[in-house]
Specification:
CATH architecture of the largest domain: 3-Layer(aba) Sandwich
Number of domains: 2
Distance between the termini: 48 Å
Helix content: 25-40%
Number of helices: 12
CATH class of the largest domain: Alpha Beta
Mean pLDDT: 95
Radius of gyration: 19 Å
Strand content: 15-25%
Low-confidence stretches: none
Shape: globular
CATH topology of the largest domain: Rossmann fold
């Protein structure tokens, strides 16, 4: 694969995006971050803002005119910008389809017209819904359970269509449960790590859904950044690759490692008892391996716990209020 003229990273001020920016800068690339800062924070880039190879543009990926001014020939496009979380997608599905499907389509068409050399899309393992097979391969049935999952999968289908019709070199990475420093501290009820760490810091019990025996394929964010770099450098085209640890961990094990008291909440409809990525394909295609054991990743999160100082502290009551439409729609 030829060297990029520049790497354009949409959503680069977000949790995952800021780590991807750091990784590409570390490889000597010139990087343009495009982020509307609706969920991303420029503070996530503080440690690299003085790098002369970094430029930041506050803009929305659904703005075709603005994107056409920013993307150039031979650029690599790393498309991470998206609205996330289940609950708000149920409440505001049109916003999610606009940001995630229209935004991706605008970026694809911009890349095509500019003559971009590569397009890497951050898809979601939520497309699998409640799988029949564990570990879950890329060939598993697609069963999105809520609008966020549906929008992310539809955007992936647009990606492959642009790749097929216009020969835009494109690859999709289906991310499993990504965690690590700089994960989001605000917004709707979401990722379990942020919820638990804010509760622990505030001296409140951790809100465990169901029995806590359910497992999740937690993959550390630096490993995800490495997968993105590998996909961008590769010659893969029209492929979807799972990105996970391949070693699911129970919520009870997470609680044990974090330490603290627990309160149990009702199990939520549409959530799988297990997420578990089959990662043989990405191993073979990119030579990629997850390198951060879960216990070490949790230690890193605990060392950074004050990042969650001032974050919303969820209680059983506020969670019940936030998720009532989830139960109403999916039960």
């Amino acid at each position: 694969m030829s060297v990029a003229a520049r790497v354009v990273i949409t959503g680069g001020a977000g949790f995952i995006g800021s780590h991807v920016v750091e990784r590409f800068l570390g490889e000597g690339h010139h990087v343009l971050v495009v982020d509307n800062c609706s969920t991303g924070r420029l503070e996530n880039l503080t440690h690299v803002r003085r790098d002369p190879r970094l430029a930041v543009e506050v803009a929305d990926v659904t703005d075709a005119e603005a994107m056409s001014r920013l993307v150039g020939r031979d650029d690599w496009i790393i498309h991470l910008a998206a609205l996330a979380d289940i609950v708000p997608s149920i409440q505001r599905p049109l916003d999610y389809f606009h940001a995630n499907v229209t935004g991706t389509t605008v970026m694809l068409e911009t890349a095509r017209q500019a003559g971009a050399a590569r397009f890497v899309y951050a898809a979601s393992s939520s497309c699998y819904g409640i799988p029949d097979v564990y570990p879950t391969p890329e060939t598993a049935a697609i069963r999105p359970q809520y609008p966020y999952a549906a929008a992310k999968y539809l955007a992936e289908q647009v990606l492959f269509h642009w790749g097929q019709v216009y020969r835009l070199p494109a690859v999709s990475l289906r991310l499993f449960n990504v965690y690590g420093p700089r994960s989001r501290t605000s917004g709707a009820y979401g990722a379990v790590f942020g919820v638990f760490l804010a509760q622990k810091l505030a001296g409140k019990p951790m809100t465990v859904v169901g029995s806590g025996a359910q497992t999740r394929d937690f993959v550390f964010v630096s490993d995800v950044a490495e997968a993105v770099l590998g996909a961008a450098r590769s010659t893969l085209h029209g492929e979807a690759l799972n990105v996970g640890s391949g070693a699911p961990q129970s919520i009870n094990r997470l609680v044990e490692l974090l330490g603290g008291s627990v309160v149990h909440l009702p199990k939520r409809p549409g959530e799988p008892d297990c997420t578990w990525a089959a990662i043989g394909k990405i191993r073979q295609a990119l030579g990629w391996e997850p390198r951060t054991p879960f216990e070490r990743g949790v230690r890193i999160m605990l060392e950074a716990i004050h990042h969650w100082d001032g974050a919303p502290v969820w209680t059983p009551e506020t969670i019940a209020e936030a998720t009532k439409e989830w139960f109403a729609c999916l039960t």
